[in-house]
Amino acid sequence: MSVNLVQKVDDRVRVRNALISVSDKQGLDVVVKELVGALSGLTIFSTGGTFSMVQQVLGQRAEEVLVPVSRYTGQPETQGGLVKTLDFKIYLGLLTETYNSSHQDDLKRTGAVPIDLVVVNLYPFEKTVAKEGVSIEEARANIDIGGPCMVRAAAKNFHRVAVLVDPSDYPGFLKSLKANNGFTLLEDRFRLAVKAFRHTASYDEQISEYLGRVSFPESAPCYQIRRG
């Protein structure tokens, strides 16, 4: 298997396109207002409940800034939000390397754009399974798929992409972004990538720990199991 080994990296990357999709909406109103205020020409791609909140926060400005992911990808969200962001254009935008001419050709071919900032946190699995009487089906339904994929892709491409998984990091990130005239710094992107991988690792551990301690199918009266 051949892999791309990047040799040329920009310390400073201007944020032009951001992808925002969060379960924990703490601080979302502030970060959205600050990003739009600090970044001229910013486009925000978003989904579901996050899109609705960002739209409300921005008011009339939303028409010039905010784009639903479904419009960008050309694919509507599936029922229940099961598939929203698992799309080639999204991951091309996350993983594209700045100085790879083939990647740049792919962007042009598909009409995709490089995504420079990802603000994503995951379905609240740990809180869900901590509830008294929670069913295995409620737990299963709260296993996030698209979120960890986006976080991992963004963190892997820290050469260019900044990823925020924790609302407590919003103030420091915004302060640095403003101090650097709308650019992210490689040092910050790397630090945030480390935190992002720890976040997804912890999330997977929570899921495996829960599933490992429940008995199945005895613990799952919610299922009508067909035999034979």
Description:
This protein has 228 residues and is of the alpha/beta class. It has one domain (12-213): Rossmann fold, CATH 3.40.50. The protein contains 11 helices and 7 strands. It has helices spanning 28-38, 48-58, 62-65, 69-73, 88-95, 101-110, 125-130, 136-141, 146-156, 170-179, 186-213; strands spanning 12-14, 17-21, 43-46, 66-68, 117-120, 162-164, 183-185. A 5-stranded parallel beta sheet has the order 4-3-2-5-6, with helices on both faces. Strands 1-7 form a two-stranded antiparallel sheet. Helix 1 crosses helix 2 (48-58), helix 1 packs parallel to helix 10 (170-179) and helix 9 (146-156) runs antiparallel to helix 11 (186-213). The longest helix is centred in the C-terminal third of the chain and has 28 residues, at 186-213.
Which features does this protein show?
alpha/beta, five-stranded parallel β-sheet
| SSE string, helices as H and strands as E | EEHEHHEHHHEHHHEHEH
Please state the structural category. alpha/beta
The total count of strands amounts to 7
Largest sheet: 5 strands, parallel
